[in-house]
């Protein structure tokens, strides 16, 4: 058993990496709260709890938790329906409770059962949602109220914003957004690798703030007023500071929708966390493994506490976790230290944060959304094939549409995925090899790994098409599951149809519990001998090819 190291065993490296993660997390905490239509302070609260509490409780040494872009759509939809933030945080507390229960139920592996095409589609849809919802802040929109719903309550994409936005924009905000996105994109290139120790998000915030100050002194018309800047309360005492925390309205627990959103947040946050933990463990230079069940418990406790004091829902976040690893972190101290820095920052210098333009945060979020819904991902899924691409793109669009949202969008994606799964199952009930010569006609049907009731029709049609007087080998040696209805068809063919049509049937490889009469392998030898005949014709492939071959030249059936 490996010796348990002190929390401060790698303090020097962890403190440096914790500082870097803090600089990345600060603008993201503010930006995700902004995108969620939630109080900006709630994003900081979630970052603090994710860093200090979950960082300490988690068994993962390198993952970093906080508010996540992947939950933005859910938070927006929940706030729109529940109306009050104090009611919404009840759902966050319930989500945490559900996660703890999932941890005790050992559900830490259930993310493995979600199709990757649906998960990728969900994230791409969230990315599209974030992009559209940030357009008002990105351009400094200050027009008629009918478009404000784009960021204050409506979920998903709203194309109305594109038709009226051009008449009500602030050039200064647009410039800051464009420059910010350019910096973020440039920072990903190999040429800028030596500068990447400086977090791109922090640089965007600093340059955006500097530009707005410059606009005030040199070009007043470009300057952004307070309504376009971050607006955090500036406490003058400890009492004022603690007054910023939003405590739950416990009457919310009587609202069925609160329970519904709590369950949705728990499921999505758990999936995102488990996927992130898996990715983080793969990136860990020390190759440590994290228990998914233990992580769900830690995340659940963190979310219960976050909801209790007015924070957004929390997940493990791959952006911060990978940055933590790249910065040289060795233990969970780095995540804890980044949470301490967030707490120190919001307690001591909130007035400085109020100089940050919302358009700078919008630039970070638009680029985050672009990364989630990047064109390269669409191209990759397209190349994989329609069975992956169609569920992916349908999920992405459905999640992004305002009248559907995340839950319905994912459900639609699941239905499409199941359709393709069933379709694939129906398409290949068996593979065949057929040898024909003047001396005989032998067909081998090698049943698929799983033969469901959906394959009954194809198999029944095959049995009805097999030539009278021929020999058939039905081989189940590679089958792990054969549906009862299919077994009944095989029995009926073997016991009734085949004798009446002078067909010899050899049943091979069936499990004993199927109670199918087993034949010998002698017909395999006969098949090989027949194939060596000079007049022999051999064919092989999937069931549709055999059906075409068997039915070729047959007279049409009169109805």
Keywords:
559 residues, alpha/beta, Transcription Regulator spoIIAA, 5-stranded mixed sheet, two-stranded antiparallel sheet, 22 helices, elongated, disordered C terminus
Task: Give a short synopsis of this structure.
The chain is of the alpha/beta class and 559 residues long. Helix content is 58%, strand content 8%.
- Return the average pLDDT rounded to an integer: 83
What is the helix tally? 22
The proportion of residues in beta strands is 5-15%
CA(first)-CA(last) distance: 76 Å
Number of strands: 9
Strand order of the main beta sheet, please?
Answer: 8-6-4-3-9
Summarize the main sheet: 5 strands, mixed
Shape estimate = elongated
Count up the domains.
2
Class derived from helix and strand content: alpha/beta
Which stretches of 5+ consecutive residues score pLDDT under 50? Answer: 145-155, 555-559
List the topology elements.
Layout (H helix, E strand, L loop, with lengths): L10 H25 L4 H18 L7 E3 L4 H11 L2 H20 L11 H23 L21 H5 L6 H16 L13 H19 L19 H5 L13 H28 L8 H17 L5 E3 L1 H9 L6 H16 L1 H4 L4 H15 L2 H10 L1 H15 L4 H23 L2 E8 L2 E8 L2 E2 L4 H10 L5 E5 L5 E2 L1 H17 L3 E5 L13 H10 L5 E6 H9 L8
Parallel strand pairs: 4-6, 5-7, 6-8
Antiparallel strand pairs: 1-2, 3-4, 3-9
């Amino acid at each position: 058993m490996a010796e348990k190291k002190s929390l401060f065993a790698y303090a020097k490296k962890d403190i440096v990496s914790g500082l870097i993660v803090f600089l990345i997390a600060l603008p993201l905490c503010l930006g995700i709260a902004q995108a969620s239509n939630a109080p900006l302070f709630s994003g900081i609260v979630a970052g603090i709890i994710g860093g200090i509490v979950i960082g300490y409780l988690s068994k993962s040494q390198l993952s970093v938790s906080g508010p996540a872009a992947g939950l933005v759509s859910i938070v927006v939809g929940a706030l729109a329906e529940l109306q009050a933030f104090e009611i919404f945080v009840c759902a966050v507390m319930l989500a945490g409770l559900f996660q703890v229960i999932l941890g005790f139920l050992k559900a830490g592996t259930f993310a493995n059962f979600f199709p990757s095409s649906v998960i990728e589609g969900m994230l791409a849809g969230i990315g599209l949602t974030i992009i559209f919802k940030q357009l008002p802040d990105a351009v400094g929109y200050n027009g008629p109220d009918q478009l404000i719903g784009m960021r204050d309550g409506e979920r998903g994409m709203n194309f109305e914003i594109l038709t009226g936005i051009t008449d009500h924009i602030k050039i200064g905000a647009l410039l800051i957004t464009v420059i910010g996105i350019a910096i973020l994109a440039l920072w990903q290139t190999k040429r800028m690798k030596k500068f990447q120790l400086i977090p791109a998000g922090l640089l965007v915030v600093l340059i955006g703030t500097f530009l707005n100050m410059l606009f005030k002194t040199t070009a007043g018309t470009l300057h952004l007023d307070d309504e376009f800047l971050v607006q955090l309360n500036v406490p003058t005492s400890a009492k004022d500071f603690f007054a910023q925390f939003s405590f739950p309205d416990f009457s919310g627990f009587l609202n069925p929708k609160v329970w519904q959103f709590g369950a949705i947040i728990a499921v999505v946050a758990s999936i995102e966390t488990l996927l992130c933990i898996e990715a983080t463990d793969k990136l860990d230079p020390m190759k440590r493994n994290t228990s998914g069940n233990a992580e769900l418990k830690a995340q659940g406790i963190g979310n219960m506490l976050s909801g209790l004091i007015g924070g957004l829902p929390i997940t493990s976040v791959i952006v911060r976790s990978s940055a933590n690893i790249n910065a040289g972190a060795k233990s969970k101290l780095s995540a804890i230290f980044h949470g301490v820095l967030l707490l120190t920052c919001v307690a001591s210098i909130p007035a400085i944060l109020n100089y940050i333009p919302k358009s700078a945060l919008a630039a970070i979020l638009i680029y985050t959304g672009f990364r989630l819904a990047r064109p390269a991902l669409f191209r990759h899924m397209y190349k994989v094939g329609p069975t992956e691409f169609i569920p992916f793109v349908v999920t992405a669009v459905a999640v992004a549409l305002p009248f559907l949202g995340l839950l319905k969008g994912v459900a639609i994606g699941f239905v499409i995925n199941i359709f393709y799964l069933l379709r694939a199952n129906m398409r290949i009930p068996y593979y065949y090899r057929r040898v024909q010569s003047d001396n005989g006609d032998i067909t081998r049907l090698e049943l698929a790994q799983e033969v469901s009731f959906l394959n009954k029709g194809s198999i029944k049609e095959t049995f009805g098409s097999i030539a009278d007087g021929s020999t058939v080998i039905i081989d189940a040696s590679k089958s792990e599951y054969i549906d009862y209805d299919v077994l009944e068809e095989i029995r009926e063919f073997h016991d009734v149809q085949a004798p009446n049509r002078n067909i010899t049937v050899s049943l091979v490889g069936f499990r004993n519990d199927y109670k199918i009469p087993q034949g010998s392998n002698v017909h395999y030898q006969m098949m090989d001998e027949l194939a060596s005949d000079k007049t022999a014709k051999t064919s092989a492939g999937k069931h549709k090819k055999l059906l075409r071959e068997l039915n070729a030249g047959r007279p049409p059936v009169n109805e």
